[in-house]
Design a protein that fits this description.
Low-confidence stretches: 1-8
Oligomer: single chain
Helix content: over 70%
Number of strands: 2
Largest sheet: 2 strands, antiparallel
Radius of gyration: 18 Å
Order of helices and strands: HHHHHEEHHH
Strand order of the largest sheet: 1-2
Strand content: under 5%
Shape: globular
Structural class: mainly alpha
Distance between the termini: 57 Å
Length: 229
């Protein structure tokens, strides 16, 4: 098969994505297993790089014409970034290591299954105006992967957390929330006129490109913690 064939081209970014993912998983897992302080430090680094990436987008958009709506969108995503980081640190402090690993695993499984199923099956686009490459098959693949993860992770969760059926269903709902976080960041990039938030992670783009879904879940966790204590 030619290296430039459509089928080969469809998977051309798989290897750099995999290699970068292995490094990120190793760093993230190491921080989680080391201590709450180590994980909090890693979240702080992600937050600071994310701030730089938002500033970078701001500068790009300023050069082509910034509107009041553009500023509001950037500020809204800044709020997601800040609340997401606070939520992840709070989850680490209060939820325990097992729950934190589950949330991180949920994002990884959703993204990986969505990528593999979407690339394999293709089909109708989920929201082409915002994310032209995301398909319904990929979205559903992410939900199924998250549901299976919830089924197998439930026995390791804090005792008395929720019943199995509710945990599996919640996993699929959280999977969709993480996908919406990915969509929100995609919409932000399109509005700011950039392809990626930066290019510091081979195969993934920037920190916001890679951790958008996790930050969305962190922000959701923080808001729910404030509302329900």
């Amino acid at each position: 098969m030619s290296a430039n064939s459509p089928k080969t081209g469809k998977w051309r970014d798989l290897m750099p994505r995999l290699l970068s993912a292995v490094v990120m998983v190793a760093v993230g897992l190491g921080a989680v297993l080391t201590s709450h302080l180590a994980f909090s430090g890693l979240v702080a680094v992600v937050g600071l790089v994310g701030l730089w990436e938002l500033w970078r987008m701001w500068q790009v958009k300023q050069a082509t014409g910034m509107t009041a709506g553009d500023r509001n969108v950037l500020l809204a995503y800044l709020a997601v970034l800040v609340l997401g980081c606070l939520g992840l640190v709070t989850l680490s402090a209060e939820g325990g290591r097992a729950l934190l690993l589950y949330v991180i695993g949920l994002v990884v499984v959703t993204d990986s299954m969505g990528y593999l199923v979407g690339k394999t099956l293709g089909g109708p686009k989920f929201w082409p105006r915002i994310s032209p490459n995301k398909t319904w098959s990929g979205v559903l693949g992410g939900w199924i992967g998250a549901g299976l993860l919830g089924y197998f992770c439930h026995p390791f969760m804090p005792e008395g957390l929720v019943r199995l059926w509710f945990f599996v269903t919640s996993s699929m709902i959280l999977s969709f929330a993480s996908q919406l976080g990915d969509m929100a960041e995609s919409g932000l990039k399109r509005r700011m006129g950039v392809k990626d938030s930066s290019n510091i992670i081979p195969g993934h783009g920037g920190v916001l490109d890679r951790f958008d879904a996790l930050l969305a879940l962190g922000a959701l966790a923080f808001i729910l913690d404030v509302i329900f204590g």
